[in-house]
Write a structure and sequence with these properties.
By secondary structure, this protein is of the alpha+beta class. The chain is built from five helices and 13 strands.
Length: about 250
């Protein structure tokens, strides 16, 4: 594909995950939030974004990060195309400092719980905005693997247009029918997934919810073997109801 000038298409990926946990007591809920805050502090999130930046072949121009009180963290990267070598004169390469901005990557975390329930949740929002040929969709497997993802919601949109040499406008420069096309099949097998796509507007939405729950993975400071069968069933039921409501985006139960 030969273009006139730069590829001006803007590709935006909004990636959100939810981790759900059972916390038996008020103290457990506070300790869970503190644990999540320490595990996903701004330093660790920064390292994840550095990896993302490498994956989309970009250069970090600026990093801003913040840990909040009482909980939560945010990190923002301003990114650009890698500096390129261009021949000049007798063919010797010269490093040029001019570059086309590739936009930004941001991440925010939201640990939370409700004082009247035993369910705590942890949400991560990651937004990747790129310009040019690279698509942030190629980072999805890495993102899913970087967090304990019980529910995942993803929005992808391509905006603007670029021009081919003959002047023909190009509103999409890669094939896509679903965000799921860019996720490993082994990962998809572990989730229920739903698509809501508006092809005419180059807008794609996918939401995913984990299929099988291993209770031991959802108990904080509690051993499953210390619970009765009825207690285990009730906790699994509460966890699943919480996930279904988050997945559906509305109150159901």
């Amino acid at each position: 594909m030969r273009l006139y000038g730069f590829n001006n298409l803007t590709k935006s990926l909004s990636f959100n995950i939810y981790d759900v946990c059972y916390t038996k007591s008020a103290r457990d809920r506070l300790e869970y939030v503190a644990y999540i805050d320490s595990q996903y502090n701004s330093d660790r999130l920064t390292n994840i974004l550095y990896k993302l930046t490498d994956m989309i072949d970009a250069k970090v121009l600026n990093v801003a990060k913040q840990d909040y009180e009482p909980q939560g963290a945010s990190v923002a990267f301003m990114i650009a195309d890698h500096v390129r070598e261009m021949p000049e004169g007798d063919g010797a390469p010269e490093m040029i400092l001019g570059h086309l901005d590739k936009s930004h990557i941001t991440v925010h975390t939201y640990p939370e719980f409700h004082p009247e329930t035993n369910i705590a949740t942890f949400r991560v929002d990651i937004d990747i905005e790129t310009c040019g040929e690279i698509s942030p969709l190629h980072t999805l497997d890495y993102l899913i693997g970087s967090f304990d993802s019980d529910i995942i919601t993803m929005d992808y949109r391509v905006r603007g247009f670029t021009r081919e040499l003959d002047g023909n406008k190009l509103f999409l420069d890669h094939e896509i029918t679903s965000i799921q096309d860019f996720i490993d099949e082994a990962t998809l097998d572990t989730y229920n997934a739903t698509d809501i796509n508006v092809y005419q507007a180059n807008m794609f939405h996918t939401r995913m919810m984990i299929k099988e729950l291993d209770l031991s993975n959802y108990l904080f400071n509690t051993n499953a073997f210390d619970l009765s069968e009825e207690e285990r069933d009730n906790i699994l039921d509460d966890l699943r109801k919480e996930m279904i409501e988050i997945y559906s985006g509305r109150n159901i139960f």
